[in-house]
Amino acid sequence: MWLFGVAASLLAVAPATHGQDIASECPAPNGYFADANQCDKYYHCVDNVLTEKLCPDGMAFNDINPAVEKCDLVMLVDCSGRTKLQTPIPTENCERQNGNFAVRGSNDCSQAYRCQDGVGTLITCPEGLVFALDTGICDWPDQSGRVGCKLEDTQNFTCPRVQQDQAVAHPRYQDPQDCQYFYVCINGKTPRRNGCKFGQVFNSKTSACDVPTEVPDCADYYTEFFDEHFAQVEQNPSLLSQDILSAAILAGYPVPLMTDRVRITPGAGAKRVPDEKPPRPPLGGTPRPGPQRVSPQRPSISRPEPARREPGERPLRRRRPGTRRRKITTTTTTTTAAPEYYDEYYYYEDEAYYDDPATGPTDDNPNTVSGDAGPASSGPSPPAPAATPSRLSTLRFPLVRTAA
């Protein structure tokens, strides 16, 4: 009875223990993580719950970020330390469902098949390059790692040996079979095939690309091609290529005139010419005056002149703003400011201010009251004491009448 209870308790604990072991395999509660042995296998963890996943055939898991789920071609993923892959699923031209693979049973090192979901497309490497098995890309023959694909084997070219005092680091040699191409011998030993752009040929004297007219042996290298192209353009002008036309001019080829086949459409800003010319005036008539050209003139800038005053003329009285505060009319509802006014008029005491001293201020005006006015006397007035010079000595106030 006791043994049965212990066994039952162990069975109850076993599922929990197993769940803890699975959760401990996740490096983090959430994310995508690569397998330690197989390059195309990875795991997806969600809240410490692990799920095993597998990339498509020919692809491997790219462990670049735990938050990113990404499978790339095997050649683009670093599988160091986890070289195992799933069992391949080959097709007619593809070793796996995805990837780049060499052509089976072919000696052409420059061709390969690009496979996607088991469907292969034949591709050809650029001139001078071969398909590398390890990297799955087009590379130099000496770096492809393929036996029998070196230029010495495929192009039948070997870098010539030169004396040590005449050696160049990376000499160039013309391709004996094609004027457009040349070979670069790396360190004077390993050949690599390069080419000039369309319309140029290699000049062995300058070790650079040049126009065909500068290389007598290759002066007619493009002639046959240009003859066929422009013969087709004669039949169909729409086949004219601007790139080929530029290359023909660069190569010194006599491009035929085709102005009658090219229609030039004027733009919106082109000048329109009237269909009919205006009639000429009769010979015996009076000639009409032609249009006169008026040259634009710069307008003159007018400056105001100062006002002039005739001698003996009384100067204008000047007003100055008053210093008194404005009177404010206050009511029970609104507050209205009184209209602005000026306090007084004034005259300058300095007689030199006036052109004619006779026009200076006088006391004959009955509407003015002197500031120091006293009781009137019939006798002569005593001499005034010397006053301190002041700019304003006589003030004129408006006449104010008081109620009797």
Overview features:
404 residues, alpha+beta, Antimicrobial Protein, Tachycitin, Chain A, three-stranded antiparallel β-sheet, 4 helices, repeat, Chitin_bind-dev_reg
How would you explain this protein's 3D organization?
The termini are far apart. The chain is α+β, with helices and mostly antiparallel strands and 404 residues long. The radius of gyration is 54 Å and the shape is flat. The protein has helices at residues 2-24, 151-154, 223-235, 242-250; strands at residues 31-34, 41-46, 49-54, 59-61, 71-73, 99-102, 111-116, 119-124, 130-131, 138-139, 172-174, 181-186, 190-195, 201-203, 208-210, 328-330, 335-337, 345-346, 395-396. The chain has 4 helices and 19 strands. The model is unreliable at 1-23, 259-273 and 364-378 (pLDDT under 50). The strands form 8 sheets. It has a 3-stranded antiparallel β-sheet with strand order 1-2-3, with no helix packed on it. Among the domains are: 18-87, Beta Complex (Antimicrobial Protein, Tachycitin, Chain A), CATH 2.170.140; 89-154, Antimicrobial Protein, Tachycitin, Chain A (Beta Complex). The longest helix is centred in the first third of the chain and has 23 residues, at 2-24.
